[in-house]
């Protein structure tokens, strides 16, 4: 085994803790905290290694019913309805041999949202409970077996494939892709929840989930950070739309301090981010009052600058279960920010402001904060995240501002320039400026001018312009603030008419 392969093997063994929990609080079997039943006492396919457990009740203590290809009596016994939606849920790699807690949550959410649907859990744990490369090799077999089941349902019950939805997590996403490739006809939809990266990244389409595997393939990527040259979740786009919450990188609430305080396990940090795709999908099923939007963008850098908040020409979409089929456009990358916990949806604002240099403040490098005043609520001070770390002077600067709560119609904005000692960031900036100008004698206070702020709300697509409340107060220095109120200066006030989401 060469050095790189050894590092990969070590990484995969460490990652096993994230892809499958140890027995205990994360196990989802019969018992006081089980949630789901064992799903493993009925039916035999491929020597009993693949089972199709059709859930019949929200009471997870009930066993459910097992479908078996070629056994029509099982369809009658399970109450399979070929005219209803059919939703298959497919797990990924495991070393514990148990269903994890996310399975209970996902099955429960699907059944509550689609009470008349056929909800089937695909249990391939004996084949998934292997060394990771062996489990990868089995995904092909499991996908083919699902396709065989669907073909039989088409023959026996005239099952319309357009009403079939496969939901696969991690390795299960690629299993769903194989099923879509081998089935006779075209499956209606496949959802990939952070599809596994190792041994799939960069491969040809026939060896992984791809847009051709269903009429509509939507994918959530939540853990695309590399370690030892590989990423637990696949980085490349593999669907019709590929959504990267928080850039597909660091997920809020999954930081080291956040997770260690609860789990006390470093691997739980990795698990939190990989599994976040499942919880975002569950959130989309359960929280219909505010459905999260994602916005098409060429990359995370432009999105962080606030450039990509348009819904024109299908450039935005709901995420998770509420995602709508779009005109075939392969690999459309979309981005959004989320909260740290459910409900995950928040509110995106694009802000543009022209910063004029006054009094030769070339080295001003301000740290700005904004406070938004709304019809319902006001925000706290929000740090203006300047992606390239520099405010452009005598230039129009564009920023993305994200709020966790619905503040209603935006009424007023307060822009503040942090003083030299407000935060560690300001202290560091001030120290650098002091070192840079060590030999200069200038002690003048930097002065910048901001006359107006233009705002676009991502969720409503409304645009507004805000002008200084006091026309004589447009200049700002460290420790000062300016208040802006709505005004008109040429930007459209009403949103463009667009199709309902």
What do these coordinates show?
This protein is of the alpha+beta class. It has helices spanning about 5-20, 70-80, 100-115, 125-130, 130-155, 170-180, 255-260, 265-285, 300-305, 425-435, and strands at about 50-55, 65, 85-90, 120-125, 165-170, 190-195, 215-220, 225, 230, 240-245, 295, 315-320, 330-335, 345-360, 370-375, 380-385, 395-405, 410-415, 445-455, 465-470, 475, 480-485. Helix 1 (about 5-20) packs across helix 8. Pfam families: Lipase, PLAT. This is triacylglycerol lipase. Belongs to the AB hydrolase superfamily. Lipase family. GO terms for molecular function: heparin binding; lipoprotein lipase activity; metal ion binding.
Shape, per Cα inertia axes: elongated
Distance between the termini: 52 Å
Task: Work out the helicity level.
Answer: 10-25%
Could you say which structural class the secondary elements and strand pairing correspond to?
alpha+beta
DSSP strand tally: 22
Count of helical stretches: 10
Strand order of the largest sheet: 2-1-4-3-5-6-7-10-13-11-12
How many discrete structural domains? 2
Supply the CATH superfamily name of the largest domain: Alpha/Beta hydrolase fold, catalytic domain
CATH class of the largest domain: Alpha Beta
Round the mean pLDDT to the nearest integer and report it: 84
In short:
The protein is α+β, with helices and mostly antiparallel strands and 501 residues long. The protein is 24% helix and 24% strand.
How is the topology of this model organized?
Elements: H1 3-19, E1 51-55, E2 65-67, H2 72-78, E3 86-90, H3 101-113, E4 118-123, H4 125-128, H5 132-157, E5 164-169, H6 171-182, E6 189-193, E7 216-220, E8 226-227, E9 230-231, E10 241-245, H7 256-260, H8 267-286, E11 293-296, H9 300-304, E12 316-318, E13 332-336, E14 347-358, E15 368-374, E16 382-383, E17 395-403, E18 410-417, H10 424-436, E19 447-457, E20 463-468, E21 475-476, E22 481-487
Parallel strand pairs: 3-4, 3-5, 5-6, 6-7, 7-10, 10-13
Antiparallel strand pairs: 1-2, 1-4, 8-9, 11-12, 11-13, 14-17, 14-19, 15-16, 15-18, 18-22, 19-20, 19-21, 20-22
Helix pairs in contact: 1-8, 3-8, 5-6
InterPro entries: AB_hydrolase_fold (IPR029058), Lipase (IPR013818), Lipase_LIPH (IPR016272), Lipase_N (IPR033906), Lipo_Lipase (IPR002330), PLAT/LH2_dom (IPR001024), PLAT/LH2_dom_sf (IPR036392), TAG_lipase (IPR000734)
Subcellular location: Secreted
Active site: 170 (nucleophile), 194 (charge relay system), 274 (charge relay system)
